[in-house]
Amino acid sequence: MLSTRTDVKSGPCHRCRIIRSFVMFTFMLVILALVGGKKLEVIDFLTPTWFATAIIALGVFGFLVKLISWKLFNKII
To answer: Can you tell me the mean pLDDT for 12-21?
Structure first.
């Protein structure tokens, strides 16, 4: 017996949109690198180590904000 879903949406799912956005961003970045050439030397400081450090710093900052808000606003009186 065939069963069909009745709640099918016309657009792509959230995960598919994220994957498509990532692929398009990467594609545009490659095109920019090919077209930009010497003009992109201004952003030479953006290395993988810089991005890794930024991600770790944002994660630690977010954790501290959540920890402090949890400690301040979750007190049982």
So the answer is: 88
Q: Is the pTM of this model over 0.90?
A: no
Q: How far is CA 48 from CA 6, 17, 28, 43, 57, in A?
A: 45, 25, 18, 12, 14
What letter does residue 13 receive in the DSSP assignment? P
**Residue 32 contacts residue 42 (beta carbons within 8 Å):** no
Buried residues in 35-60 as b, exposed as e (16+ CB within 10 A): eeeeeeeeeeeeeeeeeeeeeeeeee
Cα torsion 49, 55, 61, 67 to 10°: value is -130
